[in-house]
Amino acid sequence: MNPKTFAGLPRGPAALAGVVQGLLMHEHVAPSYGLNLSDAQHAEAHLRTVDGMLEGIAARDPAPLAKARPPAARQVGVCRHFTLLHATMLRGQGVPARARCGFGAYFAAGKYYDHWVTEYWNAAETRWVLVDAQLDAHQRALFKVGFDPLDVPRDQFLVAGEAWRLCRTGRADPADFGILDMHGLWFIASNVIRDLAALNDRVMLPWDVWGVMTANDSELDLGLIDRLAGLTRAPEADPDALRAAYADPRVAVPAVVHNPVRGRAEPGDK
User: Fold this and answer.
1) Using CA atoms, how far apart are residues 230 and 246, in angstroms rounded to an integer?
2) Which whole-number Å values give the CA distances from 207 to 1, 80, 134, 179, in the listed order?
3) Is 181:187 a contact under the CB 8 Å cutoff?
4) How confident is the model at residue 4, as a pLDDT?
5) How far apart are CA 65 and CA 9, in angstroms?
6) Other CB atoms within 10 Å distance of the CB of residue 130
């Protein structure tokens, strides 16, 4: 990526979230904006890299990134794309930021939906802050969000390791965690692995499958996921252990992953 790509953007998490919202459209929220996406637009949700997203944005409109595009002219993605672009922009301004994979409690009452948000270091407050860069004013009203999406409460977005802990200790029901017709402990375990990868700078598609991921609870290595969940709940507690855990070939992102939405193997970094 050209270091000048993000030159001229407004500074800070709030302003950059606004920029991202003016560039991207969530694949599954698009109908609420009155949009009927084409097959080609749906395919954009499978783009993996920031460069790929930026190329699509520029192909539609070469205007500066700070210029909001109308909804119909935005690049299509999912929560992961909003998060990745937002975190990358923050890093470009020297702000420590990362993508987090977990579950949002604010899309349906009593349910925790598969979701991604940005986590950035607020130096003034000496704490990591969660930002949902996807939630523009339209979506805040649509989902009746009553909190500030620039500082998402930790009980409203659970990182995957925390969701795992709550379910393993009987404080939450695994059936309440997932998306569409996919729910359960196995889904949470896969998100623990995706979150571990993201903390090691591999921000994968939400549906990518690799390594020990499984769709069957009976096949889970509970001890392994217990350990990974503990490490990812508190990434700063032992960074060396976090990196060492990701080196395990059972959880590290391989050169080729399975994309079940497309039903095919794909390079993990393309």
Assistant:
1) 13
2) 25, 10, 18, 11
3) no
4) 76
5) 7
6) 19
For residue 239, give both structure tokens: 């960074």
Q: Are 227 and 248 in contact (CB under 8 A)?
A: no
Using DSSP, state whether 265 is helix, strand or coil. strand
CB 129 within 8 A of CB 151: yes
Sequence-ordered list of residues with C-beta below 8 angstroms from that of 18, at least 6 positions apart, any chain: 10, 68, 136
- Does this model's pTM top 0.85? My answer is yes
DSSP string covering 155-201, please?
Answer: TTEEEHHHHHHHHHTTSS-GGGEEETTEESHHHHHHHHHHHHHHHTT
Alpha-carbon gap, residue 270 to 254, rounded angstroms: 12
What tokens does 261 get? 């939405």
HEC profile of 68-132: CCCHHHCEEECHHHHHHHHHHHHHHCCCCEEEEEEEECCCCCCCEEEEEEEEEEECCCCEEEEEC
Q: Is the dihedral of CA 95, 53, 236, 132 positive or negative?
A: positive
* CA atoms in the 13 A half-sphere facing the CB of 87: 29
Encode pLDDT of 160-211 as tens digits. Answer: 999 999 999 999 999 999 999 999 999 999 999 999 999 999 999 999 999 9
